[in-house]
Design brief:
Length: about 50
């Protein structure tokens, strides 16, 4: 579940990760926890907001 205070870019990235994990390629993406892939999203969103 996406937190209520999530930023729009972060929410979109979470949805894209979910969609990517459901595809056949790349195979390794399905083996990685979504949590690990989503943890850096707030930091990335902050960097792009500042830059």
């Amino acid at each position: 579940m996406i937190p209520v205070d999530a930023r729009p870019g972060e929410e979109l990235s979470r949805l894209r990760i979910t969609q990517a994990k459901r595809t056949e390629e790349p195979v390794w993406l399905a083996d990685v926890s979504a949590v690990v892939l989503q943890q850096p999203l707030p930091d990335l969103d902050t960097v792009w907001t500042i830059a």
